[in-house]
Amino acid sequence: VREAMGAGPSGNKLEDLEAVLIGVEPLSLELGTELTPTVAEKVPEMVAVAVEQLAARGIHLEPRLTTAEAN
Description:
By secondary structure, this protein is mainly alpha-helical. Helix content is 39%, strand content 0%. It starts with a helix and ends with a helix.
């Protein structure tokens, strides 16, 4: 993670940056193109955690309407 973050866009040092990792431990590491049901089930929870983490840092998101909801 340290190497991936490098320096911030404003030239901040790594010590000044913060990273929050959100994930799920898969039951299987088999290759495929679709999420497993176990991982897919956790996506809404991970999104909610990401939204909470952003809000805690002063970034507030608004839900976007889907095409079906807009019509």
